[in-house]
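Worked example 2:
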Amino acid sequence: MKKLLLVLLAIIVFSCKPEFSSKNEENYTFDLTFKLYEETAYFNLRLKEQIQKSLKNKKLVNNKDVETYHQLTTDYIKYLDEVNSELIKNQNIQDFIYKYEEFLNKENVEILFFNGEKYNSKAEEFVLKLNQYRDKILKLVKDESLKQKIETRLNTSSMLIQNGEQIFYLNYMYKDQPAISVLTHMKLRQFYLLDYENEFLKNQLINN
């Protein structure tokens, strides 16, 4: 499941960056990206079910670390959903499955996160929220392998590009990207957050 998501995301990254050469290619890119969005949303629901099942295990009931981790993740995912809603102007994504122009438009992403090449206040909040979430859950995680995954996946440091130039995290991730790619990336991030929580709960069960 993870490998499938990574392969599809790689296709999206490389297919969305260049200018589209034809309407058919544009529509194909949208269809592929939206398929990944829907599949990731499905996987997220399954992970949430697994997490809820684990939380009911008597070994984890009244475990303060578990309660804290779960609440932090729930709150942060809710925040990501709110950002998604802002990006599509509080409209239901299901109502726009075939409105290619709406979701391939890059203007909404620019307005939401950037002032030219610089972050706006929303981008600063977005990065701050991610940093705060990452740092708080890391204090609860004892397993070194899981710690490394979280530190790597939720790293917001500036990126080095081919010529050695540094570029801000959100500029690297979202600058000049169509809305559907940003929405899909955020949904994929939720998948990783839920996957890490699921792994955290499994470790807690083993240790208890």
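Residues 2-207 form one domain. The chain has a mean pLDDT of 85.
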